[in-house]
Amino acid sequence: MRMVFFGTPEFALPSLHRLATDFDVALVVTRPDRPVGRGGRLTAPPVAYAARELHLDLFQPPNPNVPEAVEAIGSYEPHAVVCVAYGRLLGTLLRRLAPPGILNAHPSLLPAYRGASPIQGALLDGARESGVTLIRLVRALDAGPIVAVERARIDPDETAADLHARLADVTADMLTGVLPAWAAGDLSEEPQDEAKASLTRPLERKDADLDLRRPALEIYNRWRAFQPWPGVRVRAGDTICALTDVRPGNEQLEPGQVRLDENALLLGCGNGSLSIRTLQPAGRTRMQAAAFARGYQRLLQMPWGHPYPDARPPLIE
User: Fold this and answer.
1) Element (H, E) at 290
2) Given phi > 0 = left and psi -120 to 50 = alpha, else beta, which region is 185?
3) Closest by alpha carbon to 77, among 96, 57, 97?
4) pTM for this structure?
């Protein structure tokens, strides 16, 4: 079976590798190289590196929907088109390249958590379950009919990085299993329930700023959701500290109150506390809590989290 694969980030890599092993991936379409870091060095997306390692044809159009890009992709005459986290909408002409349409993988139990941050959205909500949904792409974002669903339990202390890796593997398994019947037109589809739909927005660096007036469990879920990026951070006097290893605390402290408890810093929240095992002051390396307390004793005498950050737009609508 000859196919075209659309994808960009690391999440798409297990799927690309599995599909390239089991099928004929004639073309890989990914986003253009972009400047990264302070020096602005042009860097290829992960899928581009993988395509080159696999010796697959690679296409990186700025806009895949323009006629010349559609023509170039269509020249491969695919029997199937698969999309895994490509990063932009694919128009009508692309959706018509193969008779079944485009099979798209989304790491949530649709219609919940459509959009850019589905894994983070589920963790931020404290959800106990996530999964992967395969849909046929339509014009509206992540709103196409459901082809297949695989559910996955979320562990209580699981981070976005952990869940990201698990669901990437689930996606690869689902695609390789479903694709033959999909390409043959043998799979039924189920419309999504629009009344249950929710939409997530892209994460921003400012989402890392913690409001310690919020309940401890909510902040802990935020820490889980925002690993590895954008992380979470809090102001301690004139120092901004990234909180790199956090668990729920077992004491009630005032919001912003901090003290050393054995090998962890207890940080008060609106309801409960956080137990901080490691943290990273701005411009320094990551430190154990006890080492931080020795080097920054003055910061333990003042409330943390002031001034409170400006309210951010909700991640989930």
Assistant:
1) helix 289-295
2) left
3) 97
4) 0.96
